[in-house]
Automatic annotation (TrEMBL):
Signal peptide positions on this chain: none
Name assigned to this protein: Methyltransferase FkbM domain-containing protein
Entries under PANTHER family matching the protein: METHYLTRANSFERASE, FKBM FAMILY PROTEIN, SLL1173 PROTEIN
Listed CDD domains: AdoMet_MTases
Source organism per UniProt: Saccharolobus solfataricus (strain ATCC 35092 / DSM 1617 / JCM 11322 / P2)
Gene3D superfamilies according to UniProt: Vaccinia Virus protein VP39 (3.40.50.150)
Length: 222
């Protein structure tokens, strides 16, 4: 049963009492813990890279359901604060939180400390005058820096950065990835073609239109 307060949600899951701060602004706690939206991936005893970790709901789900370790990547300052608070309060020890943005090249970006939604693609903030300076890294550099060697599961929900994240991977890095579950925002077709060429089997849900976006879930398996 969910116990909702002004600034957090609390409930029992598998005999563990969990609390999530920031759930009113962001996060998909219900989708993760009641109807796990990435249910086709097998992440047990594997390393998960969670790009677009938001307030940590998906990362915590992975961590307490058998993932070996979880790299929780969230560039938005406000969401990252909730992410680290939720990891700390729930005493999760196998999540590594990273306050970085994912792009197709290394650099820095200034991101305002604001509430965000569907337009939280970090490139939308590249001309911001105020905010926190956040490193931009390629997914390839994250995997190399943290010496993640094999059997990687990718979960990506980053409001558009999924294309930069995937297209910037070289063949050596792609060989380390066994499964991908991502939310696409501008259609699945080119992503699907790219991943099939790299040896993945791909399936995706029918795109749903939202303004200029074409949104759905794409899965890729080796």
């Amino acid at each position: 049963m969910f116990n909702i307060k002004d600034n957090y949600m609390e409930f029992t899951y598998k005999d563990k009492r969990l609390r999530f701060y920031g759930f009113l602004l962001n996060g998909h706690v219900y989708n993760q813990f009641i109807s796990f939206e990435y249910g086709k991936i097998d992440f047990k005893n594997k390393t998960v890279i969670d790009i677009g970790a938001n307030i940590g709901d998906s990362s915590i789900y992975f961590a307490i359901n058998g993932a070996k370790e979880v790299y929780a990547i969230e560039p938005m300052p406000k969401l990252f604060n909730y992410l680290t608070e939720n990891i700390r309060f729930n005493n999760i020890t196998n999540i590594i939180p990273l306050n970085v943005a994912i792009g197709n090249e290394e650099g820095l970006i200034k991101i305002p400390n604001i509430d965000v939604g569907l337009d939280a693609y970090t490139k939308n903030f590249q001309n911001s005058e105020n905010g926190n300076i956040i490193p931009v890294k390629t997914l390839r550099s994250i995997i190399s820096e943290y010496v993640i060697s094999e059997n990687i599961v990718l979960k990506i929900d980053c409001e558009g950065c999924e294309y930069d994240a995937i297209y910037s991977l070289d063949n050596t890095t792609l060989d380390k990835i066994s499964q991908i579950a991502l939310e696409y925002h501008y259609g699945p077709y080119k992503l699907s073609e790219f991943l099939i060429e790299k040896g993945f089997k791909v399936e995706y849900t029918k795109p749903k239109r939202y303004n200029e976006h074409e949104i759905g879930i794409l899965y890729a398996f080796k």
